[in-house]
Amino acid sequence: TLRDKLSARTVGMRAASWLLGAGWTTWAMTTGPLSWTALGSLATLGVGIGASARATLLHEEARELEALAAAERQVARELSAERRAIAAEWVERIQRVCGVTVRVVAVEMWPTGTGFTLDAELPTGGVTYDKIARESARLSGDAKLPHGCTASASPGIHQGRVLVDVTTVNVLVEERTYPTDYSPLSLMSGLPWGLRTNGEEVLAYLREQCALVVGPTGSGKTNMVHTILAGFARATDVLTWVIDLNAGSAGLPWVNPALNDDGSFVDGMRPGVDWLASTHEEAVRMLDAAIAVAKERKRAYQGLLSKANTDLLPVSSRIPQIELVIDEGAEILVSNDRATRKLGEKILEVIRIARAMGVRTVLTALGATGSVLGNLMIRREGKVRVALTGGETEGMDLSKMFPGTRGLKVDQAPYKGAGFMGTPESPAALFKAWRILPNQIRDITAATSDRHPKLDAKSARAAGDDYARRWDAERTAWMRDGGFGPASVGREASGDGGGLNLAALREQQPPTGGPDDNARREWDELTVKFREEIDAQFGTAPGDESMPDQAASSGGGLNLSANGDNPARDAALALLLAAGPDGSGASAIARGLADQYGTTRQTVVGWLKSWTDDGTAVRVGTGTKARYVHHRHTPRSGGQD
């Protein structure tokens, strides 16, 4: 009892109950416990001790609660003392640096432990928060804050109050990976694009706003684009269309995990983006479709708008918003090239007419310059703005990027992925973009595949065949083979639309020219030598008429005579046989032939398909794990002879 530090009342109650119980027991053993006197006295003692114990317990609980309250008051006094010290220090600093006398109403310590916020009341006389905001750098220097930490002012609850956010720990220097929580998001509740210096996520609300992301080379702009695409992929009411005239590199990582070698989709998977364009021609198709969708929605959904009593189309999984992500799209708008200028005009038309109907854009640029931000449409509609500085000062005019916001300096965010972000809901301030890795892109593509909405029927009808056939093999061949672009695919396609014309690749001519035709002679010598090695190993000399018959009857030889005079195809079949039961893929065979024959992967894909059709090879697996095994190594052939 004493060790538990109980109150004197509790100790006295327990001692009295022990003494009374022991006394009654002694008396009852002497006089007999079964008399009415003994039983009555026992009942009286029991009731008295029980009532005393109950009262003592209530007293003990009240005592414990009071002790806890006292401890909390002590912590509050200590914390209040710390806050009072911080408030007094910053009142004096703001007076000294800015010449403004403020009264601190509250000090909020950030849960992350990386800083605090001062809520201060401005003096009378027309003083605004802006007078403190433009002295951000001087305040930070006077407070001797670490590099990457700032003291930034923003409007308070009304125009007579100011909020001063003081960062004390540099969170910009650390690399923050994209969260592994791929739970569903909605455009209406905001999409996370990064972290503020206080550790809070900064959200982008894009139902009505377009976005502009600028950043020089090496600042992390491409990574930021992938972060944006990740948010769109997780959203249940967004379809993402991507235009990247730089070989489509911004959207390819979101398409490749779901695309098979033959152009079909991996079972149960859809790409992370709904449409990807890498050429002017495909981009024109996409923008024309977006304009047609916006105009059709204006006509077809008048009844829905009237029923919902709104002039904004209600966006949902049934009628998703289309987000056009255009890498270096701001440069397209200011280009002097005629074809690119026409593309820019279509982008501006989408921005101009499609806000209410749920078609918005995200443009990127290499810098915040007057030429990029000179377009009124961009400045008016693109209110969600991101400037990734990476410490670069050239072409990074933050006053043009965030007009009206003072105290922003490039040297405050000299780290990759760090910069400034401002939205209509959140003033421009420092933030850190997440680092998203290629394996995360694959994981997000797989995790969100069943979450992507489909374009509503009315919009799909307006978008036409350009949208419906966007994943046709001819238009996606460039995604599966770097040597093919959509333009060349159109030229290579057969006249009846029955597939790719690979005759030019199958009928490759040996190189000619050079000072003394050495290249041609070396090509001929290598070709003859290689065919002799194949014939010696497999007994398949074209002039030997007995071997093909024997091979056909026994099934034990490699009959290459049917390939005609095509040494590259012969060599490919030999490599497939040499691969054994594990088989090989188109890429591996193409690499084996590239140095000698210059054969492309797409050509090998055509050969493998024909061999699969005639039974020479068997396809094992699907998607990126698909392998091709020669029929001699399959179980039904009995193994290799």
Task: Give the helix proportion (percent range).
Answer: 40-55%
CATH architecture annotation name of the largest domain: 3-Layer(aba) Sandwich
Query: Roughly how many Å is the radius of gyration?
Result: 38 Å
Question: What is the name of the CATH topology of the largest domain?
Answer: Rossmann fold
Low-confidence stretches: 482-516, 541-562, 637-641
User: Which strand order do you get reading across the main beta sheet?
Assistant: 6-5-14-13-12-7-11-10-8-9
Strand content: 5-15%
Q: What's the CATH first level of the largest domain? A: Alpha Beta
- Superfamily (CATH H level) name of the largest domain: P-loop containing nucleotide triphosphate hydrolases
